[in-house]
């Protein structure tokens, strides 16, 4: 058992560094269902099996065709066996018969299946990812009612240093320094946070307790810092890297600490207001943080508790780091009390990862997708998004419209355009009719270039492997985001154009 | 992680080859293709379309070219390489060559799917070739688990150097006539890279589009922690780990005299881990873990199957386009990230007029007349547009070729041999000892380029 665990840690080492042991656990407890083991479908599963998804089930009634590689097996079984081989930690199985009336026919009318399945999954609150490779175009649609993200792992997150409103312990710690009486060694190894804080005090006394606000003032503040650098016997400035760091960080360090609009939106959700016994953990914790903000935090979030590395001697750095860490722990325990009282009021207890939530409070995200029904209904189609994107007639939006059109074509002609060589010419004009009827029905006054209609006939619904592989990579990672609740999923339609190697995301 | 496409003048050569094929014994015309096998490709190769290149001619020759003639070299059979080999094989490429000197490690198995746990320890190139050849009938992947001797030293520890070397190599194969590149000597290079959830793919037509060195600034060198921090002022767990690796290991030689730290040896990592923990507790630093230790010592780059799948797919799509002209090629750089939603950015990287690799122009070096040899060395290694590793400098003095500076460093990064015309690199360039004059041409060799780079010294007083 232990040997197996160690081997797994080694095998998954490179990905554990991205989503941690808890992310891996979530992945290993997950079960995904793939409907239709096409090239795209098997690529998606491959990218879920390799990192160790708990289990997968393939639903597919098709036989393997000449375009698939090799075997004369049923597609679901063939795919399951090949995928299973990639990772013995994963358990896979398949279902060939779809238990519904006219099932084999239904799976041919792709759109029909999609919409019906979509409705069922929407009601059951099961996340649904619809993927399709059509010629050199890939398309992904995420359908999830509400997906909350605690660990969004933002790039370039701003630090939480509180220099504009230092908490008591930080203030006391800053006061314990007297820059003017320090020896050079100490002076040069004082953390830049302390330096900025000290000079900010000087600035306040001369500027009516107002922070440097614009470029001119920040530049003046930087000059103040420059003046603070020790001089040698000849009056030339010494080499003090910590002061260089202070000067470099003036831009970001002096920003007012405030709550982002994304987080404010989360706080003002209904789910935050009305806590019941059914309220998911995310919303209870969000409410607890909100209560902290209003009652204890003077309008700001609990202290995050981390500081970036900076030039300093070990002792000074560690002491400063601990000031932030201890305050973070203090704030966390206050939030924890709020959680307890909220839960008590609805008769529950919890064992949640509260600290994780609090450290990430500034980066919480919620993704809500519209249902397929809303996207396809004439009353609620997102006309604005479609027409404004089509101001550029080569926008990826035209590919979306073409995909909608070829489904319409299939409904009318029982085959996709241009599947056989002899059909190509004729289908171009028939497809054009479909495009126009689609645009008319939805009241979209946009025009679609003939080139795209031609291209969507030429490709004859082929599923080139490299395009399927690209989409397979994208889709698998979105699924992993949903499963691990880390990183932020897209919302809600992603189009990839392999002809131009460009992509776009639309909210439809 | 890099592909070179060998593309011959398709139309004429295919005819000649078809004749040859008919005569060859035992040669199966289409590699045992079953009905419908290449249907998905045929739609793009046998039909005209609105987005093809002007020279595209729909017909059966292009598929024949892919299946029979087109040669492609894949460098690396790791995260990107495995995906690439599969993509190429399933897209009709059959004459595939793959280079990789590495052997399979258990930590590869979360994404390098051509390998199984029973393959651990075997050469990647060989196992990858075996797998593809057995699963994709008709495909012929030739493995090279080695490379030319000069490269041995470099490819094993610095993948980026390998990229630059290959870039330089392809440039050296170009023929110029009256200053214009002969297009039939261009071997396209498709380069892909990934790191966690980010990646990029680019198409390089040597001599025509931006090469790797044209955009060297896009790849800034790795920053190491300052020595004084590691030696006396640690603040982060990483500092403690580097202390154990850089200072304690050479001093204590815990596994014997001259035994270097091997990042793949768990016992070595365990030693570094424990020493790092001791150091950390001395300074009240928290956060030293075995995983962090391994990450720092091996300079681990986090990696996951999905990003590699995306980038390799983009690269293979470009290979297909270049080989068939079925669509316009990427011009020329794609950036990808799926940390927050999915993001791609496509742009045309520009050629650098005085690129040290592809501009054919001797590089200008400006120094004051009091500059020292050390200043030249510093510039060559630290300039973001050159980023040389261990340059060897020669020049012609009094009609004779003289080595100004040469340093040989082996795989384990320890100095083996050092030579300089003068006992000290602090010697003045224009002084009596070296006597270099304004306009002096220096020839510089370095592991980052297969060809010598020519520099011209300009002295400003």
Notes on the structure:
Chain A: Belongs to the ubiquitin-activating E1 family. ULA1 subfamily. Chain A: GO terms for molecular function: NEDD8 activating enzyme activity. Chain A: One of its GO terms (biological process) is protein neddylation. The complex is a heterodimer of chains A (508) and B (461). Chain A has 508 residues and is an alpha/beta fold. Chain A has 22 helices and nine strands. Chain A has helices at 2-11, 13-28, 39-49, 75-84, 103-108, 110-124, 168-175, 184-188, 192-206, 215-227, 241-253, 261-267, 270-273, 281-295, 314-345, 354-359, 372-376, 383-389, 397-413, 424-441, 450-458, 465-484; strands at residues 31-35, 55-59, 91-95, 128-134, 137-143, 147-149, 365-367, 493-497, 502-506. In chain A, a hairpin with a 2-residue loop joins β4 (128-134) and β5. Chain A is elongated and about 90 Å long. Chain B is α+β, with helices and mostly antiparallel strands and 461 residues long. In chain B, 33% of the residues lie in helices and 20% in strands. Chain B is built from 13 helices and 16 strands. In chain B, the strands form three sheets. An eight-stranded mixed beta sheet of chain B has the order 4-3-2-1-7-8-9-10, sandwiched between helices. In chain B, strands 11-16-15-12-13-14 form a six-stranded mixed beta sheet. In chain B, strands 5-6 form a two-stranded antiparallel sheet. At the A-B interface, α1, α2, α3, α15 and α21 of A face α2, α4, α11 and α12 of B.
């Amino acid at each position: 058992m232990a040997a197996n665990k160690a081997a797994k840690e080694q095998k998954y080492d490179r990905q554990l560094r991205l989503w941690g042991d808890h992310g891996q656990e979530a992945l290993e407890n997950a079960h995904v269902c793939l409907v239709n083991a096409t090239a795209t479908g098997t690529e998606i599963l491959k990218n879920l099996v390799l990192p160790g998804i708990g289990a997968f089930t393939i639903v597919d009634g098709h036989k393997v065709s000449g375009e698939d590689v090799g075997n004369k097996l049923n597609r679901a079984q063939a795919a399951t066996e090949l995928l299973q081989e990639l990772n013995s930690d994963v358990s896979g199985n398949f279902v060939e018969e779809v238990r519904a009336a006219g099932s084999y026919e239904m799976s041919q009318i792709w759109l029909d299946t999609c919409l019906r399945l979509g409705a069922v999954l929407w009601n059951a609150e099961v996340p649904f990812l619809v993927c399709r490779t059509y010629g050199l175009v890939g398309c992904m649609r995420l359908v999830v009612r509400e997906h909350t993200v605690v660990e969004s792992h933002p790039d370039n997150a701003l630090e939480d240093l509180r220099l504009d409103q230092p908490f008591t312990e930080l203030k006391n710690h800053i006061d314990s320094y007297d820059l003017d009486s320090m020896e050079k060694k100490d002076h040069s190894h004082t953390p830049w946070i302390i330096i900025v804080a000290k000079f900010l005090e000087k600035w306040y006394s001369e500027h009516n307790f107002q922070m440097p606000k614009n470029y001119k003032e920040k530049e003046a503040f930087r000059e103040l810092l420059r003046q603070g650098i020790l001089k040698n016997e000849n009056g030339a400035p010494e080499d003090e890297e910590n002061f260089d760091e202070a000067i470099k960080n003036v831009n970001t360090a002096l920003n007012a600490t405030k709550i982002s609009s994304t987080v404010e939106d989360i706080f003002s959700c209904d789910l935050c207001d009305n806590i019941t016994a059914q309220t998911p953990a995310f919303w209870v914790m969000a409410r607890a943080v909100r209560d902290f903000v209003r009652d204890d935090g003077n309008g700001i979030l609990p202290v995050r508790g981390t500081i970036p590395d900076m030039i300093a001697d070990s002792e000074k750095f560690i002491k400063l780091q601990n000031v932030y860490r201890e305050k973070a722990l203090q704030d966390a325990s206050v939030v924890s009390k709020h959680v307890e009282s909220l839960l008590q009021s609805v008769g529950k207890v919890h064992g949640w990862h509260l600290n994780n939530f609090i450290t990430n409070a500034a980066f919480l995200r919620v993704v809500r997708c519209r249902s397929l029904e809303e996207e396809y209904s004439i009353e609620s189609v997102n006309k604005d998004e479609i027409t404004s994107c089509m101001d550029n007639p080569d926008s990826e939006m035209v590919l979306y419209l073409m995909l909608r059109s070829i489904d319409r074509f299939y409904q009318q002609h029982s085959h996709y355009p241009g599947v056989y060589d002899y059909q190509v010419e004729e289908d171009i004009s028939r497809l054009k009719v479909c495009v126009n009827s689609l645009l008319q029905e939805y009241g979209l006054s946009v025009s679609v270039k003939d080139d795209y209609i031609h291209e969507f006939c030429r490709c004859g619904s082929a599923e080139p492997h490299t395009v399927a592989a690209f989409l397979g990579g994208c889709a698998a990672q979105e699924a992993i985001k949903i499963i691990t609740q880390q990183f932020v999923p897209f919302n809600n339609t992603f189009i990839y154009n392999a002809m131009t190697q460009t992509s776009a995301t639309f909210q439809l | 992680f890099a592909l070179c496409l060998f593309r011959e003048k398709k139309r004429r050569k295919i005819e000649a080859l078809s004749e040859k094929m008919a005569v060859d014994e035992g040669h199966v015309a289409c590699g045992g293709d079953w009905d419908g096998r290449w249907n998905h490709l045929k739609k793009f190769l046998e039909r005209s379309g609105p987005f093809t290149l002007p020279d595209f001619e729909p017909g059966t020759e292009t598929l024949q070219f892919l299946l029979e003639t087109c040669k492609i070299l894949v460098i690396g059979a790791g995260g990107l390489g495995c995906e690439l080999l599969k993509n190429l094989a399933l897209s009709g490429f059959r004459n595939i060559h793959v280079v990789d000197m590495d052997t399979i490690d258990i930590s590869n198995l979360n994404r390098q799917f051509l390998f199984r746990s029973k393959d651990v320890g075997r050469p990647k190139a060989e196992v990858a070739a075996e797998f593809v050849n057995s699963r994709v009938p008709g495909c012929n992947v030739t493995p090279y688990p080695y490379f030319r001797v000069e490269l041995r030293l470099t490819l094993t520890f610095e993948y980026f150097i390998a990229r630059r070397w290959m870039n330089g190599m392809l440039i050296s194969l170009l023929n110029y006539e009256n200053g214009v590149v002969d297009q039939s000597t261009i071997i396209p290079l498709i380069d892909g890279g990934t790191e966690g959830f980010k990646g990029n793919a680019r198409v390089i037509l040597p001599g025509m589009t931006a090469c790797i060195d044209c955009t060297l600034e896009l790849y800034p060198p790795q920053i190491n922690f300052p020595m004084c921090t590691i030696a006396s002022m640690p603040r982060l767990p990483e500092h403690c780990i580097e202390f154990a690796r850089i200072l304690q290991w050479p001093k204590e030689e815990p596994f014997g005299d001259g035994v270097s730290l091997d990042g793949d040896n768990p016992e070595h990592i365990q030693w570094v881990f424990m020493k790092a923990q001791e150091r950390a507790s001395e300074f009240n630093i928290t956060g030293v873990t075995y995983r962090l230790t391994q990450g720092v010592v091996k300079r681990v780059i986090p990696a996951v199957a999905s990003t590699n799948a995306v980038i390799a797919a983009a690269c293979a799509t470009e290979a297909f386009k270049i080989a068939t002209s079925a669509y316009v090629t990427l011009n020329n750089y794609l950036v990808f990230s799926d940390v927050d939603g999915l993001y791609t950015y496509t742009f045309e990287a520009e050629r650098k007029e005085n690129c040290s690799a592809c501009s054919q122009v001797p590089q200008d070096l400006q120094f004051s007349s009091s500059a020292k040899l050390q200043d030249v060395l510093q510039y060559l290694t630290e300039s973001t547009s050159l980023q040389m590793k261990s340059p060897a400098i020669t020049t012609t003095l009094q009609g004779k070729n003289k080595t100004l500076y040469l340093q040989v460093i082996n795989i384990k990064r320890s100095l083996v041999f050092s030579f300089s015309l003068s006992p000290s690199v602090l010697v003045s360039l224009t002084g009596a000892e070296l006597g270099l004059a304004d306009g002096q041409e220096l020839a510089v060799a370095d592991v980052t380029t297969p060809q010598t780079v020519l520099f011209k010294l300009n002295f400003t007083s």
